Predict the 3D structure of the following.
Amino acid sequence: MKRKMILPAFAAALVLFSAAAAVAGARVGKEAPPHDSPMGPHFSFTRAQWESTLTELPPEIRNAIYADEALFLKEAAALIDAGRAFYAHIDTVVPVDPIDLRPADLVDLNDYPVRTSKPMQVRRPAAEAFAALSQAAAADGIRIVGISGYRTYAYQQRLYENLKNAVGKAGKAVSAAPGHSQHQTGLAMDFNSLEQDFDETPEGLWLKAHAADFGWSLSYPEEYEELTGYDYEPWHFRYITPAGCRLQRLFFNNIQFYLTDYFHRYDSFYREYRTHE
Ligand SMILES: [Zn+2]
């Protein structure tokens, strides 16, 4: 009996040892750059400094980043340059910063070639990206309608209180608490319908396939309800720039939460070492 237990344990140890040796080989082989070498041209941090930011990421995300470091750093530079607002992490725990944020460059969507269900505002970059998205959708025979854009802290507070009274509890998964809504940033929009089967409609399918090309990222995907703290919302998108969407798709398992959590955490690190080539 004991002998039977020992053999698999030995085999497992051997596998682990081989794997460790392979990893060590990849890191110290003559092809691997030294840990104190700069990661340029976009950033001046060393490999060791940069790698220390990756240690807490899920393994599949870390591996994807290691698989194409140069592209990751190029897109990261573009995202960092766009500005913190485009990747600031906001969830049920982390509020909008500052909590009474009112963006300076809000514009009326009436002034853009887009459809909305009511008068609404978003930040200028989001308005331009919504117009580009709308035009591409129209060319495919798809009509995208904005049904919610910028919301003030006070509006979100009323919405939250109303829902709380209606359902008898603070339904975090249904409505964000005041100060915790992406809509307060002026960079989030709801499109067309607040029904979960929206993702089966031509409009929902079109957004799923093409929104990222215009910098719009689905914030609350299906099967990630526990991570995000929100029910699946196939209509709710956040403008995170095209570079942000490429980073999300190629490196962050196509999950916005992982992307913003990482860049929010290491925002000052990336800024401090940004070179201007
Ligand atoms: Zn929304």
